[in-house]
């Protein structure tokens, strides 16, 4: 599974859990999760590499999704665990 596929899987997890995805040029930082007027939005940086965006997305997934309660492909689960500073 390549970096873009991992990013796509992570973005799908966010969307499935009520997070709006916005693709914006943000200077290559990778984006991030925020709450605006009560709505969770993940900003995906269109100027960042897939791996940088995937790492930011993994952090967001760890905050939004109870990864212990749903099936996640083992490779994606490992990526989330390796790229998340959030303790569940």
Can you give me a brief rundown of this structure?
The chain is an alpha+beta fold and 88 residues long. It is 43% helix and 20% strand.
Tag the structure with descriptive keywords.
3 helices; three-stranded mixed beta sheet; 3 strands; alpha+beta; 88 residues; globular
In helices, the fraction of residues equals 40-55%
Alpha-carbon distance between the two ends: 26 Å
Say how many strands there are.
3
Q: What series of H and E elements makes up the topology?
A: HEEEHH
Which sheet architecture does the biggest sheet show?
3 strands, mixed
Overall mean confidence score, pLDDT: 90
Q: What's the alpha carbon Rg, rounded to whole Å?
A: 12 Å
Q: How many helices in DSSP terms?
A: 3
Overall outline: globular
- Low-confidence stretches are none
Beta content comes to 15-25%
Q: Domains counted in the coordinates: how many?
A: 1
Strand arrangement, major sheet? 1-3-2
- Provide the structure class: alpha+beta
Describe the structure.
With 88 residues, the protein is an alpha+beta fold. The chain has one domain. The protein is built from 3 helices and 3 strands. It has helices spanning 3-16, 50-64, 74-82; strands at residues 20-24, 31-36, 39-45. The chain has a 3-stranded mixed β-sheet with strand order 1-3-2. The radius of gyration is 12 Å and the shape is globular. The chain starts with a helix and ends in a 6-residue tail after the last helix. The model has no long low-confidence stretch (mean pLDDT 90).
